[in-house]
């Protein structure tokens, strides 16, 4: 039986050029989160490496590995050892020439409950993800775990209400968004505050509209895409951290800084979720008979 209450943790961390060191850091943070009482832990997007999508380089496909694979074995062992449900974003090698940005979800006994492949793939300056990632083909998913039903989406997915809705409709009471997002140095002064506010607002809105908890975990630090000592091109990104957990009313229960590594924790109380949904019955009042056109690109 799922608990009525549990503690969720977000691991906000910086990522260096050595994947092995990043993985080791993440494994230690998982154990540390468990000592803080966490029963569910989420790592940032592509935590094993610096954010390599700042440039297009065929050699960087070598960073990917299959699922299951060596990294998922270590993550599974960490989840089992600490007794936590774990969400981890990985660069998945599915087949020669087919790669995904994938979240693996492990139960507290280390079992791989399933994977979610990032559905929305951006292609913006310094976010050249379409070069690396095939769009997800598993749809939006909710996973049964020791902490109840949990859903995960990934970064660019966070701007799309459809993904949050479809995951919540499958019973997820907590949505995680592993993330790698930051400021372009040339834009920060003019647009930085508004960009961060929009990012936080849209995800708080997912919590409110769907009556769920939302956990968003970002990396921190300045990166130029320097992977394994390779020379980088471009101005780099300042990853803005700011990880947070919001309740179904949109209230921020835990909030990270913009520049520090830290573990954020918050209590997930499913009884409050029930109370909020009774008073704000958005799912009850949906006009499902009138939404067919939502699958249109535009309504001309």
Written overview of the protein:
This protein is of the alpha+beta class and 300 residues long. The chain has a single domain (5-295), classed as 4-Layer Sandwich (Nitrilase/N-carbamoyl-D-aminoacid amidohydrolase). It contains 5 helices and 17 strands. A hairpin with a 2-residue loop joins strand 6 and strand 7 (127-128). The longest helix is centred in the middle third of the chain and has 26 residues, at 185-210. The chain is globular and about 50 Å long.
- The number of helices is 5
Low-confidence stretches: none
What is the architecture at the second tier of CATH? Answer: 4-Layer Sandwich
What share of residues are in beta strands?
Answer: 25-35%
**Helix percentage:** 25-40%
Distance between the termini: 49 Å
Q: Which structural class do you get from the secondary structure elements?
A: alpha+beta
Quaternary structure type? single chain
Descriptive key words:
single chain; 300 residues; Nitrilase/N-carbamoyl-D-aminoacid amidohydrolase; 17 strands; globular
């Amino acid at each position: 039986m799922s608990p009525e209450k549990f503690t969720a943790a977000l691991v906000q961390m910086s990522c260096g050029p050595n994947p092995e060191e990043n993985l080791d850091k993440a494994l230690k943070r998982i154990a540390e989160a468990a000592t803080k009482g966490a029963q569910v832990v989420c790592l940032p997007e592509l935590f094993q490496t610096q954010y390599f999508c700042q440039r297009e380089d065929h050699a960087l496909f070598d960073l990917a590995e299959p699922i299951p694979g060596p990294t998922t074995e270590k993550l599974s062992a960490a989840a089992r050892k600490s007794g936590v449900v774990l969400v981890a974003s990985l660069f998945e090698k599915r087949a020669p020439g087919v790669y995904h940005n994938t979240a693996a979800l492990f139960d507290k006994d280390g079992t791989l409950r399933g994977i979610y492949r990032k559905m929305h793939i951006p292609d913006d300056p310094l976010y050249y993800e379409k070069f690396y990632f095939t769009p997800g083909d598993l749809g939006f998913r909710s996973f049964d775990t020791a902490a109840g039903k949990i859903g995960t989406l990934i970064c660019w997915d966070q701007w799309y209400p459809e993904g949050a809705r479809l995951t919540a409709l499958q019973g997820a009471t907590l949505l995680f968004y592993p993330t790698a997002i930051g400021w372009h140095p040339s834009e920060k002064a003019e647009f930085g505050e508004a960009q961060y506010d929009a990012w936080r607002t849209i995800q708080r809105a997912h919590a409110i509209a769907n009556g769920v908890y939302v956990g968003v975990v970002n990396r921190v630090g300045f990166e130029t895409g320097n992977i394994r000592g390779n020379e980088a091109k471009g101005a780099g990104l300042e990853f803005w951290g700011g990880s947070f957990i919001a309740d179904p009313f949109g209230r921020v229960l835990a909030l990270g800084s913009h520049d520090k590594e830290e573990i954020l924790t918050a209590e997930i109380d499913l009884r409050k979720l029930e109370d909020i949904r009774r008073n704000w019955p958005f799912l009850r009042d949906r006009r499902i008979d009138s939404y067919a056109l939502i699958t249109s690109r535009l309504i001309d």
